[in-house]
Specification:
single chain; 136 residues; alpha/beta; 4-stranded mixed sheet; 37% helix
Length: 136
C-alpha cells in the first residue's frame, strides 16, 4: 500500500496529472475536492483520453476522465476481502480511507507482492499449471 499518497484536484488538467504520476512513479491518484474523495484517476484513464482524436490533455480536466465514487476501503478491512472484491470487479486499486481521511492506495501490484511473499518457501512454490486448477 502506498501510505500517505499524493492526490490531485479535480480541476487540474490531465497533462498535470500525467506529469505528477511520472514524477512520483505511481499509476493512481486519488482525486480530492474540498478535502473529500471524489474520484480516482489512473494512468489508463489518461491514456484512453489521449488516444481520442482532437483531444488536448492540457485542456481536459481530471474530473472528465476520473472514476467517480471509486472503490474505497478502511484500514481495518481484511486483505482477503479487499483482494477478492478487487478481483471480482477488476479494480486496479482501492483507496484506503480512515473515516474521511485519505490514508493510502492499495493496488493490484501491492496484492501480487504480498502473494509472492506468501508463496515463497519450502513446498510453497507451486507451478502455474497446478495453481490454475484452483482458479474458477
Amino acid at each position: 500500500m502506498t501510505a500517505q499518497p499524493h492526490s490531485i484536484g479535480q480541476e487540474q488538467t490531465l497533462a498535470a496529472a500525467a506529469d505528477q504520476m511520472r514524477k512520483l512513479n505511481v499509476r493512481h491518484l486519488p482525486v480530492l475536492h474540498g478535502g473529500k474523495l471524489v474520484g480516482l484517476l489512473s494512468q489508463r484513464d489518461i491514456h484512453l483520453v489521449q488516444t481520442l482524436p482532437d483531444i488536448d490533455p492540457e485542456q481536459v480536466k481530471v474530473e472528465e476522465a476520473m472514476t467517480a465514487e471509486p472503490f474505497h476501503v478502511a484500514p481495518g478491512d481484511t486483505l482477503a476481502g479487499v483482494a477478492r472484491t478487487m478481483a471480482d470487479n477488476k479494480y486496479g486499486a482501492a483507496v484506503v480511507m480512515d473515516g474521511s481521511k485519505l490514508v493510502g492506495v492499495f493496488t493490484t501490484t501491492d496484492a501480487l507482492r504480498i502473494l509472492a511473499d506468501h508463496l515463497t518457501g519450502p513446498g510453497l512454490e507451486e507451478g502455474l499449471r497446478e495453481a490454475a486448477k484452483h482458479l474458477s
